[in-house]
């Protein structure tokens, strides 16, 4: 039945009960604001089993962070653009990617269906991530643009991008890789 909708709870103080002391000590020990501590806790819970990788372009104008496994499943595509750029990438949901800086320094190239958004740095020309045609709701991340120290292993899978529709339709998991 139609009627007044319940208002979402306000953003006022939360009663932590017996955990109040632990929360305050945690914030103080790690020198975190309440919001920073909450973000850390939520990230640890929501992204358990994943690590936070950071990376960017060559000149440093574009920087990002991405939550993904330490063991990466990387696609090596032989389509026309991936071959010329030597584009190898792993796919993540958009919710696990955050552009830290450089939005104004990115430019985009598209061709053919214009679904893939090939973004790259205007200054150095490096494509450290892009929006793949197979997963327009996610990002393809170039593992070679990640900072050292968080990747354990890389498994590479060849994809026949020369026959893109057939390859993607036959692949069991590629379209779902951008789902949280």
Automatic annotation (TrEMBL):
One of its GO terms (molecular function) is carbon-sulfur lyase activity. Gene3D superfamilies: 2.170.150.70. Residues 53-165 form the CENP-V/GFA domain. Keywords: Metal-binding, Zinc. It comes from the Eukaryota. The keyword Metal-binding applies. Belongs to the Gfa family. This is CENPV protein. The lineage of its organism: Eukaryota, Metazoa, Chordata, Craniata, Vertebrata.
């Amino acid at each position: 039945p139609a009627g007044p909708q319940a208002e979402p709870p306000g953003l006022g103080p939360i009663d932590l009960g017996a955990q109040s002391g632990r929360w305050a000590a945690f914030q103080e020990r790690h020198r975190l604001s309440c919001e920073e501590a909450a973000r850390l806790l939520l990230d640890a819970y929501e992204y358990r089993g994943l690590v936070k990788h950071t990376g960017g372009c060559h000149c440093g104008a574009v920087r990002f962070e991405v939550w993904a496994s330490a063991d990466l499943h990387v696609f090596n595509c032989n389509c026309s653009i991936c071959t010329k750029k030597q584009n190898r990438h792993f796919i993540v949901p958009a919710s696990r990617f955050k552009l830290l800086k450089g939005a104004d320094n990115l430019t985009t190239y598209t061709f053919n269906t214009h679904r893939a958004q090939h973004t790259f740095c205007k200054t150095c020309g490096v494509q450290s991530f892009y929006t793949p045609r197979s997963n327009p709701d996610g990002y393809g991340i170039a593992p070679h643009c990640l900072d050292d120290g968080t990747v354990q292993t890389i498994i590479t899978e060849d994809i026949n991008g020369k026959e893109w529709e057939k390859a993607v339709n036959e692949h069991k998991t590629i379209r779902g890789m951008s789902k949280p």
